[in-house]
Amino acid sequence: MAATGQVMLGFTPGETVIVTGAGSGIGRSTAINAAAVGLTVAVWDVNADGAAATVRNIQQAGGKAVSVTANVTDDAQVEAALAASAQMGNVRYLVNNAGPASAAELDFDQAMLAGIGSMRRVTTAWLARGPVSGAALVNVASVAGNLIGSAPDWYPATKAAIMGYTRHLAAYRADAVRANAVAPGLTDTARMAGYADSDLGKRILGRIPLHRMASPDEISWGILFLLSPLASYVNGILLTMDGGWTITQ
Ligand SMILES: NC(=O)c1ccc[n+]([C@@H]2O[C@H](COP(=O)([O-])OP(=O)(O)OC[C@H]3O[C@@H](n4cnc5c(N)ncnc54)[C@H](O)[C@@H]3O)[C@@H](O)[C@H]2O)c1
């Protein structure tokens, strides 16, 4: 996959990355671009069809991927998914991307389980499988909770919690993993369908200096940089990718 002039981000081809929620949106783009920079990708999603479509896309481009159907809120499914992923080789990288949409009808406690509990569950089970040198992870947080307030209450609460957990890992588990997070702003994925044309969407996009949403592809490159050996001294940061939205409010 190392076409001449292509950025490889320092990954060693054939190493394995798990991307959760990789059957759509930011996770799918991250999986596709991870394969393009040489990684073997374990494409996790609760939606088997979405995961399979991502894997097809990667394989058609000549990359290596396997689809793993798993709900990251469930211990047994996470363990089984880790075992399936480990068959591809040492899993050196993890992208905790899956999380509920803010439009989901969840009560606060359920949302904590789905939004931050799942990231801790996957990370803890992955790290428990033993040390892998140079291991790194990226958690997908949001501008919500970290830089702005938003609704419903649980959404910014889980996203701020993700950053708190990321800082914990960076401070106390640096022996095992380098941990960072990204804070996407508005990103054009399935869950945002119709938003840009809505009254609220037009108002908010008008206040973003770049006057548009991010593409999932743009967010994925921030994730992959933080994950990569090129970011070997970056630990515990939140990378905001919001087109300048929050600095202008
Ligand atoms: N789209 C945005 O504007 C935006 C902004 C900031 C942060 N984010 C965050 O980015 C991440 C990805 O969002 P997206 O917009 O790409 O969403 P998306 O809806 O396009 O994709 C999310 C994928 O995650 C999967 N998923 C959800 N819950 C899961 C679970 N419990 N187990 C396994 N898979 C699960 C879904 O099936 C889906 O394929 C989320 O954490 C989201 O909060 C998105």
Describe it for me?
With 249 residues, this protein is α/β, with parallel strands linked by helices. The protein has one domain (16-248): 3-Layer(aba) Sandwich (Rossmann fold). Helix content is 39%, strand content 16%. The protein has seven helices and seven strands, in the order βαβαβαβαβαβααβ. It has helices spanning 25-36, 48-60, 75-86, 108-128, 154-172, 199-207, 216-227; strands spanning 16-20, 40-45, 64-69, 91-96, 136-140, 178-184, 238-241. α1 runs parallel beside α2 (48-60) and α3 runs parallel beside α4. The longest helix is centred in the middle third of the chain and has 21 residues, at 108-128. The radius of gyration is 17 Å and the shape is globular. The model has no long low-confidence stretch (mean pLDDT 96). Residues 20-21, 23-27, 45-47, 50, 71-73, 97-101, 114, 118, 140, 142, 184, 186-187, 189-192, 216 line the site of nicotinamide-adenine-dinucleotide (NAD).
Distance between the termini: 42 Å
Radius of gyration: 17 Å
Structural class: alpha/beta
Determine the number of helices (DSSP H or I, runs of at least 4 residues): 7
Let me know the average pLDDT. Answer: 96
CATH topology: Rossmann fold
Give the beta-strand count.
7
Order of helices and strands: EHEHEHEHEHEHHE
Number of domains: 1
CATH class category label = Alpha Beta
CATH-defined superfamily: NAD(P)-binding Rossmann-like Domain
CATH architecture identity: 3-Layer(aba) Sandwich
Runs with pLDDT <50, length 5+? none
- Biggest pleated-sheet summary: 7 strands, parallel
The distinct bound ligands, ions and cofactors come out as: nicotinamide-adenine-dinucleotide
What is the molecular shape? Answer: globular
Work out the helicity level.
25-40%
Give the strand order, joined by hyphens, for the main sheet. 3-2-1-4-5-6-7
Beta-strand fraction estimate: 15-25%
